[in-house]
Amino acid sequence: QVQLVESGGGLVQPGGSLRLSCAASGFTSDRYTIGWFRQAPEAKREGVSCINNSDGSTYYADSVKGRFTISRDNAKNMVYLQMNNLKPEDTAVYYCAADSVGVAISTAQATGVMYRLEYDYWGQGTQVTVSS
Description:
Number of strands: 11
Helix content: under 10%
Order of helices and strands: EEEEEEEEEHEE
Radius of gyration: 14 Å
Mean pLDDT: 95
Oligomer: single chain
């Protein structure tokens, strides 16, 4: 059974940095995509970045491009989201999600959108608050 556990959220001042971690386990093949989504109060859940486990290809939403970096450590079954130059509008609950089929990265790269329905496993979320 696939399990995803996020950690690393917290309170940070504007311009600061945080690194989110996602411990991902239980996959039966290496062809999967891990994505990070976020949901602010009274807003829709939006995808911010994803990474394909087999080849390391990545996608970033325009709102975070140049500030966030997604990476993976396959030896540790970990995916990270390094968030720099954080802004108040980055405040949200951040979710790690997995597409066990491995097609979500192609969809995101082709359309510029990460679709929630392509992800079949979700973590519990971690709160990120950017405020002075």
